[in-house]
UniProtKB/TrEMBL annotation:
This is Granzyme M. Cleaves peptide substrates after methionine, leucine, and norleucine. Physiological substrates include EZR, alpha-tubulins and the apoptosis inhibitor BIRC5/Survivin. Promotes caspase activation and subsequent apoptosis of target cells. The lineage of its organism: Eukaryota, Metazoa, Chordata, Craniata, Vertebrata. Residues 78-306 form the Peptidase S1 domain. GO terms for biological process: proteolysis. It comes from Equus asinus. Keywords: Disulfide bond, Hydrolase, Protease, Secreted, Serine protease, Signal, Zymogen. PANTHER family: KALLIKREIN-RELATED, SERINE PROTEASE 57.
Length: 308
């Protein structure tokens, strides 16, 4: 409720996090405006979907011989990953539509999970639920806790056309019960930047190839934070200071795929990113996966937890 005392949100800081590697990245939209380029529209069928099935994506026609990749056509399972030890990631959450996994999320407070804003739930909250304490989504594990969603709070400046500020908080109908399989993760220090080359881990229940059903068991892949200029060269200047990108840094395919959107990126044991978008080819070494940089939104997260 407004005016309530602020919850004692856990914060985690580390000296391994450095200053911004690039001070002034270009802030160009993924989908250019009509004044910048001719454009066309096409309807994308998401499978599995993290948006309502009628969602449209606006695609610019750039005149380049190589077509522009559509960020999020295969919204970010884990490609090139490995199964984690059961219940070893107690903060991990599954966002489900009609009891089927569509997005990842992460528990940041006893009644709040953090996910991507493009994992849209506000159009019908009653159809969605959050599952905590899960490892295998096809098995009714006794560790699982299931919650209805009572409120969705996307970041106020979220822009679906440009994929910017792709972050939201979801409020559970009651507090999660803290167990060895369910536990919130601390937030990172505000506005800290990861150095390029930092090794991180992304996890999820999404597809494992880009052409199959989601993984039943929770998977995790190791990726490396890439320099911002490398990211913008791949994504044509689409990354802002509030994003980061990661890949293997080699020719190996590894990364996120459909169903991984909203899932967490952990670096040195700390929450640093939320899966935002990837290329049409899951885990492509040519198009690093893009994440919303959580440290840029710590103040907003604390404000939401205090006032709702």
């Amino acid at each position: 409720m407004p005016g309530a005392a602020a919850p004692a949100v856990l914060l985690a800081c580390t000296l391994a996090l450095g200053s911004p590697a690039f001070a002034g990245p270009r802030r160009l939209p993924v989908a250019a405006t009509l004044s910048q380029t001719q454009s066309r529209r096409m309807t994308i069928t998401y499978y599995p979907t993290s948006r309502p099935p009628w969602a449209e994506v606006r695609i610019p026609h750039t005149g380049h011989s190589r077509p522009l990749e559509v960020p999020g056509t295969l919204r970010g399972s884990i490609v090139g990953g490995r199964e984690v030890a059961p219940h070893s990631r107690p903060y991990m959450a599954s966002l489900q539509l009609d009891e089927k996994h569509i997005c990842g999320a992460v528990l940041v407070w006893r009644r709040w999970v953090l996910t991507a804003a493009h994992c849209e739930v506000a159009w019908n909250l009653s159809d969605f639920r959050v599952v905590l304490g899960a490892h295998n989504l096809n098995t009714p594990e006794p560790t699982q806790q299931v919650f209805n969603i009572t409120r969705a709070v996307p970041y106020p400046l979220y822009n679906a056309q440009q994929d910017i500020h792709d972050i939201q908080l979801l409020k559970l109908h009651t507090s999660a019960r803290r167990t060895s399989s369910v536990r919130p993760t601390p937030l990172p220090c505000r506005n800290r930047y990861l150095r390029p080359g930092s090794q991180c881990h992304v996890m999820g229940w999404g597809e494992t190839t880009g052409h199959d059903d989601p993984s039943a068991a929770l998977l995790e892949a190791t990726v490396v934070v890439q320099p911002r200029d490398t990211c913008n060269a791949s994504w044509r200047g689409a990354l802002t200071r509030d994003m980061l990108c990661a890949s293997t840094g080699t020719r190996e395919r590894r990364g996120v795929c459909a169903g991984d959107s909203g899932g967490p990126l952990f670096c040195r044991g700390q929450l640093q990113g939320v899966v935002s978008f990837s290329s049409m080819v899951c885990g492509s070494p040519h198009f690093p996966d893009v994440y919303t940089r959580v440290s840029a939104y710590v103040s907003w997260i604390r404000d939401v937890l205090q006032h709702y």
